[in-house]
Design brief:
This protein is an alpha+beta fold. It is built from 24 helices and 19 strands. Strand 18 and strand 19 form a beta hairpin. The radius of gyration is 38 Å and the shape is flat. About 2% of the residues have low confidence.
Length: 739
């Protein structure tokens, strides 16, 4: 690779694109954010490939990277249109069928690109590589102009129509955001016109990705400064604090920017996906409450609404949102219970005019437990909650004058089998004594299996004194905090689990960092050798004989092949780690798949003079993913070939193991391994690189792939080896008959 300053432009484009994708993905819960993330990933991938296209030293390599760049380049216009449709609210055009239709032409064009050598419809030819810039000019065919250029500008035209319509019909901040999207998206296409018309400053330089820097800066400005993709600039803390209340945020056009579940329930809205719709079209069944909420006449009002068979009372609070003209935060509070309680209190005052009656009413309508005892532990007051849930009394009058022993005896008589149950009095007996002894208010955590149900109570007790200060009893309040305690425990457990996950992630990252340093080290040596040969050919070519040139070419080809195999393994391992490798196990005849896997290996074995044998029953089957099986066989066989000297032997065997599926073994008579190297195999952070018997490079990456593939099948892989006595790699796979 000949890295030039032009590669830096493409690198900058890549970094900006992926950065914007990251920012958008962080806001993926907001409408159109995920579509923008995918758009920038595609653009970034195209720019990334152009880094290496600009640095490639041969036409073949440049064409290879250009083909990969087409993956991002051909999909970017479609993704841009999808993003614009989502951003402008035209979701009706984004059905699965329509999206598939949009990708038909790009997929056909992409297929023609990768098969261009057969028809030359994408590129008809190429200029020589400029020695000054390391760039070349591509001569385009008819399929490029139709499938790539025409389709690209068609997508751009459609997106522009929707954006113009959106900008014209919207007010700030939406119209300004639409203009930002239009400018940011249009920049790359203007630059591409300059490139296609041959007016770019450097011949052969595709400066389209460079414009992504400008687009990315505009996108970053929109995201970080005018809160593009964040059309709900509402204090989420307020939403959390008032979660039982309805929260509704609308703009000057009455479009919904945010709404919580309580507001959806209050307004009678059945569809949860209403962000971006006008509130009038959201399907609210409580029209009276809706009209009161969205009118501009009052900042606070109370409304009585008929809901099913009851009348509910709502308090509506309205607040304007700073820097967003016409936008409002509307809080809808269901105060029906408060109104009901107030009416009950007023009715009690009218009926009794006595404080005791009002106290009874309040006490019996609370979820807390209230009671009072005299100095001899006799109940003198209990509220209804205490009566019903803890004492299991018929009414609030039954416990008066009785002790906890009475209720304990009654419980034992009624349910003699429940020996582990306790009454409330038995649980609280010790704290009653302590409160009376100390003569001051105390708080206690009382818990136990009360009446067959485990309860955790927050209990407060205080002494009762007469006018002379003499202790005459105790009063107590209790609150059922069982659920709260359970949530606290779950939160604590979750934090512990999160800490473990974080520690594990840090360990994995450290292992990967070390692994990549190993890969970088192993890539440096063959690259140095490769560059050394090319430098020698450049400087001494006129003085070299044909046989010397042929020998150098063979060495160059061998180095390039080894590098390609390493990069192929690295790419395959990366895909596997990200969970993108398809896994499609099925019954397979073992012998044909092994023969297919060993085709190229056998050719190399013949050149090295190594005897290769295979002893497997012709009808033996395994249940496995074909690609993973062949990759595993190929990697292990290649590994054996590297470390077996000329004239050595390699054998492949398989047998059925009772209860353990099919066990496959690859044995060689090579140099073997010592215990230290054996212990490092299959570990991501261990350095296991060493050269083969003919100087072949090896990184150990192939073994990591094999381990991942085999474990994906539920099997395992292991090795037996002694230094100087060869090695045997074993792995097992499921028997097809057990599937």
């Amino acid at each position: 690779m000949v890295f030039t300053p032009y590669s830096l432009f493409f690198l900058a484009s890549t970094i900006v694109s992926f950065s914007i994708a990251f920012l958008a993905w962080q806001r993926r819960s907001v409408k159109s954010a995920s579509e923008l993330a995918f758009l920038m990933i595609a653009a970034g991938f195209g720019a990334f490939c152009l880094i290496f296209e600009a640095a490639a030293p041969t036409i073949a390599n440049k064409v290879f990277w250009s083909k990969l760049e087409f993956i991002g380049g051909i999909t970017t216009p479609v993704l841009y249109l999808i993003f614009v449709l989502r951003f402008t609210g035209n979701d009706k055009f984004l059905s699965r069928k329509h999206i598939l239709l949009l990708f038909i032409v790009p997929l056909i064009t992409l297929l023609l690109t990768f098969t261009n050598e057969s028809h030359n419809l994408i590129w008809t030819g190429f200029s020589d590589i400029s020695p000054m810039t390391n760039l070349m000019v591509y001569h385009h065919g008819i399929a490029f102009w139709i499938g790539y250029i025409a389709n690209t500008y068609l997508m751009l035209l459609l997106a522009s129509v929707f954006l113009f319509n959106f900008i014209i019909h919207q007010n700030n901040p939406f119209s300004s955001q639409g203009m930002i999207v239009f400018i940011a998206g249009f920049c790359p296409w203007i630059v591409s016109i300059i490139y296609l018309t041959g007016n770019n400053p450097v011949k052969g330089l595709d400066i389209t990705p460079v414009s992504i820097i400008l687009s990315g800066v505009l996108g970053a400005y929109a995201i970080l400064n005018i809160r593009f993709l964040d059309l709900v600039p509402v204090a989420r803390e307020t939403l959390v604090e008032t979660l039982p209340d309805g929260i509704l945020v609308i703009d000057g056009q009455n479009r919904i920017q945010d709404i919580n579940g309580a507001a959806i329930s209050f307004l009678g809205i059945r569809n949860n996906n209403i962000i971006g719709l006008t509130i009038q079209t959201a399907g609210a069944t409580q029209s009276g409450l809706l009209n009161a909420a969205i009118n501009h006449e009052t900042k606070e009002q109370t409304e009585e609404i008929q809901c099913n068979n009851e009348i509910k009372t709502f308090r509506i609070l309205k607040h304007t949102i700073k820097n967003q003209s016409g936008s409002r935060l509307i809080v809808i509070q269901d105060i029906s219970k408060q109104v009901t309680w107030q009416k009950e209190i007023q009715a009690g005052e009218e009926r009794y005019r006595q404080m005791s009656a009002m106290f009874r009413l309040l006490a019996d309508n609370t979820e807390d437990f209230l009671w009072a005892k005299d100095i001899n532990n006799h109940y003198i007051f209990v509220n209804k909650t205490m009566c019903n849930r803890l004492l299991i009394a018929e009414n609030v009058n039954e416990p008066i004058g009785k002790t906890d022993d009475y209720f304990a005896a009654r419980e034992r008589k009624a349910h003699p089998e429940n020996i582990e149950w306790h009454t409330f009095g038995e649980i609280c007996a010790e704290t009653d004594i302590l409160t009376i002894k100390e003569g001051k208010p105390r708080q206690f955590d009382e818990y136990g299996n009360i009446q067959g149900k485990f309860l955790f109570l927050d209990v407060h007790k205080a002494p009762i004194r007469d006018e002379d200060g003499n202790l005459i009893g105790i009063v107590g309040t209790g609150r059922d905090v069982t659920q709260t305690k359970q949530l606290e425990k779950e939160k604590s457990d979750a934090l512990v689990l999160l800490q473990k996950s974080e520690n594990n992630l840090n360990k994995i990252n450290a292992e990967k960092d070390k692994f990549f340093s190993i890969i970088a080290h192993d890539l440096k040596s063959p690259f140095s050798s490769f560059l050394g040969f090319t430098e020698m050919m450049v400087e001494e070519l006129p003085t070299l004989t044909l046989s010397q040139i042929q020998e150098m070419a063979f060495s160059l080809r061998q180095s390039a092949t080894n590098l390609y195999q390493l990069l192929e393994n690295l790419l395959e391992w990366s895909i596997m780690q990200r969970g993108l490798t398809p896994f499609n196990p099925k019954p397979l005849l073992l012998v044909p798949k092994i023969n297919e896997s060993l085709h190229l290996v056998l050719e190399s074995a013949n050149k090295k003079g190594i005897e290769f044998t295979c002893s497997i029953p012709i009808d033996m089957k395994v249940y496995a993913d074909e690609n993973m099986l062949k990759s595993t066989i190929r990697n292990l066989a290649t590994n054996a070939l590297k470390f077996t000297a000329k004239g050595g032997k390699i054998s492949v065997n398989a047998q059925s193991v009772n209860g353990n599926g099919i066990e496959i073994s690859i044995r060689d008579s090579g140099i073997g391994m010592d215990k230290d190297l054996l212990d490092k195999l299959f570990h991501l952070d261990a350095y296991t690189s060493r050269t083969g018997t003919d100087g072949e490079p090896s990184t150990g990456l192939g073994l990591l792939l094999c381990k991942d593939f085999i474990e994906k099948h539920g099997g395992r892989i292991w090795v037996e080896s002694e230094e100087g006595k060869g090695s045997v790699f074993h792995f097992n796979l499921p028997d097809h008959s057990n599937q």
